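subagent[fold] <- orchestrator: predict structure for attached chain, return tokens only, no commentary.
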Amino acid sequence: MKQVKSLIILFFISIFSTSAVTASSPALWMFGDEDTKIYLFGTVHILEKDAAWGTPALKTAFDTADALILEVSEEELKKAAPLMAAAGKLPAGQTLRTTLGDGLYSDVSRQIGALNLPRNAFDQARPWFATLSLGVLSTVRAGFDPNMGADQMLLRMAKTKGKPVYGLETAEQQVAIFAQFSPAEERQFVIDSLSQLQDIATHTKNLQNAWLNGDVDTLDTLVNGAMETTPEFAKRALEDRNRAWATILADNLQSPGTFLVAVGAGHLVGDKSVQVYLNDAGITVSRIQ
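subagent[fold] -> orchestrator:
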């Protein structure tokens, strides 16, 4: 176990040791008051294994943080998979084909076949769960790794360093984002997802590059722009959560200390970002990287 911890520490030293001149610089913000400092770091949940994103500013944020705050805590994260699987299962008597209709089901089936999965792999899955799963599997096939996501890496380092890790929401709240689809909205989600899957490697690479370069405008287009045809989903997935998180973080100013908040980069870009809601509450948020 000590050897494993040592390897993790060495790995994080390597990602944080890139020079300020040559390092990629994902965006980093900060706000606070006289006795509280809160860093906001937008993450990408799935990255290539050789993506280098450590910088001196982020190292300072991590090293000085009394606690790491993620979208969900590790305990809640463990609940997410079984909850998602249960929510993503169709009622008895329904199938993916009968729910989607022959035409759209045929499109989904082609993507299943392209991954060399059994054609009936998602017969009992709700459409959103099937296409979400296909998206993750396709992204992994393209060379990206969820275990290398920035949030997961920060979580592992925090555990190694003995830093407390807290969450902004529960696993149930995350699952509800998808479980509340209306039939029409869910169908559009499937159509949009299938379109993105046509060139998932390029899309994910573009997302990674925009994040690495701190290009918040491109991130806004890639993340928020992709939800324009499903506005209610966008409201649940981004706007409502960003507003709720801003309230939690504003309240956190009552707790002295330094905190590193790491959430999906899409929550920290655009005109409904966490920072916008903090600004609405009279809190000034400054970008420091």
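orchestrator: received. Logging for downstream: The chain has one domain: 2-287. The chain is about 55% helix and 10% strand.
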